[in-house]
Amino acid sequence: MNEPVIYVDADACPVKDEVIKVAERYGLVVTFVANGGLRVSRDPMIRNVIVSNKMDAADDWIAENAKANDVVITADIPLAARTVATGCHVVSPTGRPFDETSIGMAVAMRNLKQHLRETGEDRGFNASFTHRDRSTFLSALDTAVRRAKNAPPAAPQNP
Questions:
Q1: What is the pLDDT of residues 6-41, one digit of tens each?
Q2: Distance between terminal CA atoms of the chain?
């Protein structure tokens, strides 16, 4: 059985160290994907992928490479929707899990907030990242990894 891989949308991700801790505990590979600025690691279980500065390049790379039962860490709702559709276990850096039952509402809220920002009704301030967010994330990531490791193997996909 193939072990799940943890993919991290690493641009501005505040929980990289926490991802590494959980991945080490379960013996999983972590792939950080970003436009740049990643720390070099000698750990063979940590991969860094640098993509172009093109809009959504990191998201596209993750969506093209993540497969069913992999774990994806992202705050990007469209990427979360794409990877949930693939069968990935998706968690935001604040610990919010995304799955088939929650992603529709998340996409709708994102679109509403974007509309409100565009019309000037909302200034788009994000809440500060808190110690509680970090703790919630660790718990949600641990749950997602356990689910990924215990899931039955994905059926082969037809090209």
A1: 999 998 899 999 999 999 999 999 999 999 888 888
A2: 21
Which CATH number fits the domain that encloses residue 116? Answer: 3.40.50
> What's the domain count of the chain?
1
In a domain, 155, yes or no: no
Q: How far apart (Å, rounded) are the C-alpha atoms in residues 142 and 68? A: 17
Residue 1 lies in a domain: no
Specify the pTM: 0.82
DSSP the chain: -PPP-EEEE-TT-TTHHHHHHHHHHHT--EEEEESS-PPP---TTEEEEE--SSTTHHHHHHHHH--TT-EEE-S-HHHHHHHHHHT-EEE-TTS-EE-TTTHHHHHHHHHHHHHHHHTTS---PPPPP-HHHHHHHHHHHHHHHHHHHHSPPPPPPP-
CA–CA distance, 47 with 45 (Å, rounded to integer): 7
